[in-house]
Specification:
This protein is mainly alpha-helical. It is about 55% helix and about 5% strand. The strands form 2 sheets. Strands 3-4-5 form a 3-stranded antiparallel β-sheet, with no helix packed on it. A two-stranded antiparallel ribbon has the order 1-2. The longest helix has 20 residues. The protein is globular, with a radius of gyration of 23 Å.
């Protein structure tokens, strides 16, 4: 299991571009889970107190021997330790991601974490940027090719709501500036069309003109690095983070946050949730329903528009 944890940490860093603090937290959670499986936990408990039946070989746990009962036992252990629901939820999210990674990479035959549920009352609300913060993120000087590329890249994220992997793998031939669309390939190699605003199309055109001057004849990738090669997922994370820091933003901004901002803005403007589901490429509507969180301003506007006494009540409060 130790080797698999190391592989998962490399995946988080190199492919997901996870922040250092996130990787450290996940590593601590998995090591705690490992020690639990090795029965190196509270000394006041009997060794058979929790339902643990795994194969231990060479002082390590074989990941294929870990089942749903062991994960459920660890969750029970966390409750017994008096951990907060938010901490337990993070540990469950970590374990779910870990076993999903193992299963997707054929390191285990079955995913034992798939039916593990989060504590009731805990909902993960995606972090997003309000429109004014997006404007701050985009307000940087354009002096060279990389500046134009980064502006086009950020515009595309907020315009389309595409995943970072979809933009990294996008090709020029799939871009249609005349009708403002880009064909991307999502999870499971399922393709879909995302949309560009008029402003985004203009910035894409400016970027491509600068790129032609910089590198001459176009190659296949839509976005390239300073050497003219296809940009990586990790490279995109770096660009977004760098531009956010340059804009003076204290919180860490990621491509995922821009995707969340896209969906949140559509939701706040009254877009149909089924349409948002299709634009995000979600297979299940439940994945999109997380965006039903909204701002107080929109709630107030809805109240004022539809409540028959709202206008009179507001006048009396003035």
């Amino acid at each position: 299991m130790i080797k698999e944890i190391d592989q998962f940490m490399d995946y988080l860093e190199c492919e997901k571009g996870a922040a250092n603090k996130t990787r450290q937290a996940y590593n601590r959670d998995l090591i705690q889970f490992y020690k639990f499986l090795m029965k190196d936990y509270c000394k006041d408990k009997e060794n058979n107190y929790y339902d643990i039946d795994v194969v231990i070989r060479d002082d390590d746990v074989l990941v294929n021997s870990i089942g749903q009962d062991e994960i459920s036992g660890f969750v029970e252990f966390c409750y017994d330790m008096g951990l907060k629901k938010t901490s337990i939820s993070r540990k469950i999210a970590c374990i779910k991601s870990f076993f999903k990674f193992l299963y997707n990479n054929e390191l285990i035959n079955l995913n034992p974490a798939i039916r593990i549920n989060f504590p009731k009352g805990i909902k993960k609300i995606p972090r997003f940027l309000y429109h004014d913060k997006i404007s701050e993120l985009l307000s940087f000087d354009l002096t060279n090719f990389l500046d134009f590329r980064d502006r086009a890249l950020l515009e595309l994220f907020y315009s389309s709501g595409a995943r970072v992997s979809e933009i990294a793998s996008a090709n020029i031939k799939n871009l249609n500036l005349s009708d403002g669309t880009l064909k991307v390939f999502g999870k499971g190699s399922v393709d879909r069309v995302v949309f560009l605003t008029d402003d985004t199309s203009i910035w894409m055109e400016r970027y491509l003109k600068r790129r032609e001057v910089e590198f001459g004849e176009f190659t296949e990738p839509l976005f390239v690095n300073s050497a003219g090669k296809r940009i990586t997922v990790r490279g995109i994370f770096y660009i977004v983070d760098k531009r956010a820091k340059s804009a003076g933003m204290m919180e860490r901004v990621s491509p995922h946050m821009l995707r969340h901002s896209f969906a949140t803005e559509l939701m706040n403007q009254g877009a149909d949730i089924r349409a948002i589901q299709e634009m995000l490429g979600h297979k299940s509507i439940s994945a999109t329903q997380v965006y039903t969180h909204t701002t107080k301003e929109r709630l107030k506007s809805v109240y004022e528009k539809y409540h028959p006494h709202a206008e009179d009540e507001l006048k009396e409060m003035e």
